[in-house]
Amino acid sequence: TNDPLVGTDAFTGVLDRAAGENVGAYAIGQGTLSAGTNYAITFVSKDLTVTAKPITVTAVTDSKVYDGTTSSSGVPTITLGSLVGTDTAAWTQTFDTADVGTGKTLTPAGVVTDGNSGKNYDVTFVNDITGVITAKQTNGGGGGGGGSYTPPALMISELQAPSITTNSLTLTWTTNFSASSYVVYSAEGENHELNMTDTTGNPPTYGYAHATAELDTDPKVTSHKVVLTGLNPLTTYYFRTVSRGSLAISGEYKTTTPAVAGAETSQTSEGPSYEVAVNNSTSGQEFSSSESATTQAPVQIEEVQGTQAVSQPTTSTENKAGNAGLLTAALSNGASKYFWPLLIVLIIAIAIYAIYYFTKKKKK
Fold this sequence. Notes:
Structural class: mainly beta
Number of strands: 25
Oligomer: single chain
């Protein structure tokens, strides 16, 4: 920096530095730098500083059946930056808790094998919040194949359909703990396979095409009533009732709306009586009741998937878990079976009369 070289004299050679590639400070030396024998060089050393390389590692979504642990089989990925040379990394992730639930947090972790205990990288970890843990399926009791979900605390029971019109359906049910109320449903031809990872919509549809608004969120209730509106006449609908205190979802049922407005949902004193058989999936007890024809008749709802109900526990002190009740309802009602035959006879009679009338008039 002082006493510049004379004339055409020039420096030759190169500087060197202390050996090392890891993060740290390395002294820079004079190396082979020279200006020839006519110059005495006083070299002032400085340091070369190597800083950590920034990378971002993000957890991936994962779902599993409850196993009592927070382990996840997902492998986080580097979403910003990259590793250098032959460096490698072992990334892992875990669920926030071991409990059943949706929207669970997955937290990534891990270090880079870089010969410096991972200190050559400045790693930013990003969580994923779409994890799912579903209830563990256990073998069912004697007398049949298949399995059922372990019955926790929150249960749906006494599912009924008190009334139906061409464009609406009323459903009622009870829960053993206070919870909210809504219904997921699909028309014939729309998807109606239960999917607990499908949290589309608010409230979630769980694989169905539609969901009603969620009622009774504050305060929660044990007696539930939801009215489905905007339905189409003469259409079969598949539905499940949903209550969330923790979470309980009923088995799947289906019903068909009537063809014309004014279809009866209650009978006169001369009408038939109706029986509703209810099977409680927890106790296995079966109840039946026969009501007089002067009371409103329950609508025909047909069980589709039996005990395939899903529950989700919560850490809330209000309800610790969920399960589904099982109801099978049968309706025998012949109130409107003669409608179409009578209509056809009426049309034929009108046609015959018209032919007779115009033929007679033509002869005159």
